[in-house]
Design a protein that fits this description.
This protein is α/β, with parallel strands linked by helices. Helices cover 26% and strands 32% of the residues. It is globular, with a radius of gyration of 16 Å.
Length: 193
C-alpha cells in the first residue's frame, strides 16, 4: 500500500502563494484562532514532510532567530519543524539546519514515488510549488489541500500556485470554513485527458 501524498498550500483568492511588497503580513493578516488550532491538529498527526530545496531554504530563513515574521513561530509551524523531513535537492548538503531532515538526490518524481512506496506514514508538502506541479503531472499527488485567504493580491501577488501546471479535474472531498472567512478545500486531482 502506498502512502498518501498531500500538496498543502496557502493561496489568495486570485491564486497567489505569496506577495512581493505591500504590508499584508503573514497569512495576509487573516489568521484566526480556529485556523491556527486546525493547522496544529493537522500537523500533530504523524507524517513525513517533503520540500524542494527552495522551500526548505525559505523556511530555514523564516525560522532563524531574529527573523521578522512572528507568524513563522506559530505552534503548527513549530510542530511541522519537528516532523521528519525529506528535502529533494541535488545541491544541498547534509547536515541540514532542520531536526530529522535528510536530502534525497535525484528527480522529484522518482524520489517521491519511492517515498510513497516505502513510507509507513502519510507524506505532506507545504509549498514547493514547482516540485508539486511536477508531482501532480506524474500522478503522485493524492490530495491538494488549498487554504484560501479572503484577499485579492492583484498588485502584490507573487508565486502563482498553478502557473504552468497541467490540466486537472478535481473531486472535492472535504471543505471547511475557518474563523468565518478562510476556506480550506481538499481535492483529489486527476489529470485531465
Amino acid at each position: 500500500m502506498t502512502a498518501i501524498y498531500t500538496f498543502d498550500v496557502f493561496s489568495s483568492l486570485d491564486g497567489f502563494g505569496s506577495i512581493s511588497g505591500g504590508d499584508w503580513g503573514g497569512y495576509w493578516g487573516k489568521q484566526g484562532p480556529e485556523l491556527l488550532a486546525h493547522r496544529l491538529a493537522q500537523y500533530n498527526a504523524e507524517q513525513r514532510m517533503v520540500f524542494g530545496a527552495t522551500t526548505y531554504r525559505d523556511f530555514v530563513q523564516m525560522l532563524t532567530p531574529g527573523a521578522e515574521d512572528p507568524d513563522a513561530r506559530d505552534p503548527w509551524v513549530t510542530r511541522m519543524r519537528s516532523l521528519p523531513l525529506t528535502v529533494v535537492s541535488n545541491t544541498l548538503e547534509e547536515p541540514l539546519d532542520w531536526p530529522n531532515a535528510t536530502v534525497a538526490r535525484g528527480n522529484a518524481v522518482d524520489v517521491v514515488a519511492r517515498l510513497k512506496e516505502e513510507s509507513d506514514v502519510p507524506l505532506r508538502s507545504h509549498g514547493s510549488l514547482s516540485m508539486n506541479r511536477a508531482l501532480m503531472a506524474a500522478g503522485l499527488v493524492d490530495r491538494v489541500q488549498v487554504t484560501i485567504f479572503p484577499v485579492i493580491t492583484g498588485q502584490t501577488g507573487d508565486a502563482p500556485i498553478f502557473k504552468g501546471a497541467a490540466d486537472f479535474d478535481l473531486e472535492l472531498i472535504e471543505t471547511r470554513t475557518l474563523d468565518g472567512r478562510t476556506q480550506e478545500l481538499i481535492y483529489r486531482p486527476t489529470l485531465h485527458v
